[in-house]
Amino acid sequence: MPRIAEPREPGRPTTTSQHARRRAILRVAARLGGELGLERVQMSDVAAAAGVALGTLYRYYPSKHHLYSGVLEAAVAELPPPAGHPGDPVGAVADFLENAVTQLLRRPLLGRAMLVSVNAVRSAGTIAVDTTMRDRIIAVAGIAEPDAGDHQLARLAEQSAYGIMTWATAGQLDAAQAAADMRRACTLLLAPWGSAVPANDDRMRE
Questions:
Q1: Over the chain, what HEC string results?
Q2: pTM listed for this prediction
Q3: Count of domains in the chain?
Q4: Which structural domain range is residue 180 located in?
Q5: What digits encode the pLDDT tens for the residues 119-133?
């Protein structure tokens, strides 16, 4: 398994050209990860296919795990928001996370590369924890001023999502089971967000 290389924050692009280079790196890494899987991807191949120097790649991503953690961060940021859930934050988040699971499982080798990597980076404690998924959950729920309880619920939903996706990419759940588990987890974990909706009001849950 690739090891975490350096205890430092990856570089962040600041100019238009730097942003373009990083997008190219992430696109190539996603393609190669989906084709080859984490173990067979070489950083030198990513740099060459993205048209950047190897040193540039390592400046942004000190290790392969940092790279695929970055691919996951970008994928989460690009997930489309759900539609058709006015006044139903639980349904909106369930749709959003079910779609996240479905999208990830379309390329299982890439999905596994991203999840293994994000867990490795977090376990090593070498960079600040990425909150992109958590922030997206809160935004999808329509919570403009989240309090500590809201952040906790979003964190629980995030943990559940990554756990379900980990099981699925390891072959322990098929796509339908993973999607159903994700929706069920949202219904249970995020019940406080839906407490204002009467339990017998099916119109709000359609």
A1: CCCCCCCCCCCCCCCHHHHHHHHHHHHHHHHHHHHHCHHHCCHHHHHHHHCCCHHHHHHHCCCHHHHHHHHHHHHHHHCCCCCCCCCCHHHHHHHHHHHHHHHHHCCHHHHHHHHHHHHHHHHHCCCCCCCHHHHHHHHHCCCCCCCHHHHHHHHHHHHHHHHHHHHHHCCCCCHHHHHHHHHHHHHHHCHHHHCCCCCCCHHHHC
A2: 0.84
A3: 1
A4: 64-205
A5: 999 888 766 678 899
